[in-house]
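> forwarded from #structure-qc
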């Protein structure tokens, strides 16, 4: 297996694990009346007063802040709130239906809607944190949370999230366009790689005649380990952290150094990209560190809450880089989208789901790569006319929203036309 395939499987496993966390959270919130009531109470001030108040103060904002053009640090409107719900709905439909990586489109979608990159990252992080808290995911689910593993890992995650947040803020202070270009480049690289791998996976599945979606769940790991985890666990650099006592007699052990380094990488990704780092934790734990999938899932749930919470509050909220009402709109839309998407998987062939996932991720890649020339041109990095840069950016935006909207319409249409069938399945299982 070549490097591209190995890295693609690595990222795909992370995307699936992160989506599984989102789906579980959505079910937990919507199946509890108290949590639904809490969500409603949080939305009331947003709907009744938040928008009107923000619209009033928005007009009073100066054109320049600190000598730079104001990139909407506080301004809010009814239109952008509706857009936030639709973005959350689209991400939720992808997560629920495909079971992998719907959250990856949130920051690109927000940036395409006119929100600057640093605000999109901060808001996405806060949205993840709010979802985690509302889903009450801080628990020792099935006893599978390794607290020592999580605590040492979080030490690195806090360091990484701090560095990521500082990088974004420093670049923003230097030049807001530079900040946008940096975040855009990071997303273009990740979405491009993942999208190409997903497309190849889809084409190979069609060629091979397989129809398994392979979307819900990732590689199950038990007592077996690959060569890399064995080598890492064999390095005795004290203190050693013990885990998986229920799986292996005496448990497994790994040096704190590797846990801190892994946490730093996850935290850095969270601080820069605003996706909570959850998409990296699963593959790193299972494929690199040799942690069983059972322990990984519980520990990943534990770390997402603290990593997203720390990054969103300490690196973005206190600096004014979060749209709270925007985050609530995305939360509302994603909860609905995940439920609808998850039900549609019961009536849609797995091979179709693979194809849509590849299209959605590649649409995000095209969106970000087409937005980059205008930003580089504005900074004088490349010679490109403002008109051409804007045209490319517009093409990327339209391509992105056409694909995501088309996918959304297809999923909702499939859901509506199969309501009776889905209702029958639900009654049969009840």
């Amino acid at each position: 297996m070549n490097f591209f395939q190995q890295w693609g499987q690595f990222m795909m496993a992370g995307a699936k694990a992160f989506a599984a966390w989102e789906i579980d959270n959505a079910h937990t919130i919507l199946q509890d009346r108290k949590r639904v009531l809490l969500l409603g109470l949080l939305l009331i001030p947003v709907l009744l007063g938040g928008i009107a108040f923000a619209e009033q103060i928005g007009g009073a904002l100066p054109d320049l802040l600190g000598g730079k053009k104001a990139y909407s640090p506080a301004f809010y409107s009814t239109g952008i709130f509706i857009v936030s719900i639709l973005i959350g709905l689209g991400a939720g439909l992808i997560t629920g239906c495909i079971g992998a990586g719907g959250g990856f489109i949130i920051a690109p979608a927000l940036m395409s809607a006119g929100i600057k990159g640093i605000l999109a990252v901060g808001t996405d992080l806060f949205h993840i944190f709010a979802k985690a808290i509302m889903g009450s995911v801080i628990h020792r689910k099935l006893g599978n949370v390794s607290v020592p593993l999580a605590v040492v890992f979080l030490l690195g995650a806090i360091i990484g999230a701090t560095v990521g947040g500082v990088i974004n803020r420093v670049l923003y202070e230097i030049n807001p366009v530079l900040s946008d270009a940096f975040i855009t480049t990071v997303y273009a690289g990740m979405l491009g790689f993942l999208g190409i791998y997903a497309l190849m996976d889809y084409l190979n599945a069609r060629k091979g005649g397989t129809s398994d979606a392979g979307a819900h769940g990732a590689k199950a790991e038990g007592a077996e380990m690959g060569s890399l985890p064995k080598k890492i666990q064999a390095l005795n650099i004290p203190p050693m952290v013990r885990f998986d006592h229920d799986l292996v007699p005496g448990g497994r052990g790994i040096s704190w150094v590797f846990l801190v380094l892994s946490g730093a990488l996850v935290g850095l990704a969270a601080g820069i990209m605003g996706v909570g780092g959850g998409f990296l934790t699963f593959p790193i734990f299972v494929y690199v560190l040799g942690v069983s999938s059972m322990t990984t899932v519980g520990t990943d749930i534990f770390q997402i809450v603290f990593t997203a919470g720390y990054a969103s509050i300490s690196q973005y909220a206190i600096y004014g880089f979060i749209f709270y009402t925007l985050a609530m709109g995305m939360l509302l839309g994603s909860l609905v989208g995940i439920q609808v998407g998850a039900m549609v998987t019961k009536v849609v062939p797995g091979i179709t789901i693979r194809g849509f996932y590849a299209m959605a991720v590649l649409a995000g890649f095209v969106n970000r790569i087409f937005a980059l020339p205008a930003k580089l041109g504005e900074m004088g990095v490349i010679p490109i006319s403002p008109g051409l840069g804007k045209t490319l950016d517009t093409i990327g935006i339209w391509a992105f929203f056409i694909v995501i909207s088309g996918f959304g319409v297809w999923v909702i249409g499939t859901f509506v036309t199969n309501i009776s069938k889905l209702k029958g399945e639900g009654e049969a299982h009840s």
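QC bot note: Residues 183 and 326 are 19 Å apart (CA to CA). The two ends are 44 Å apart (CA to CA).
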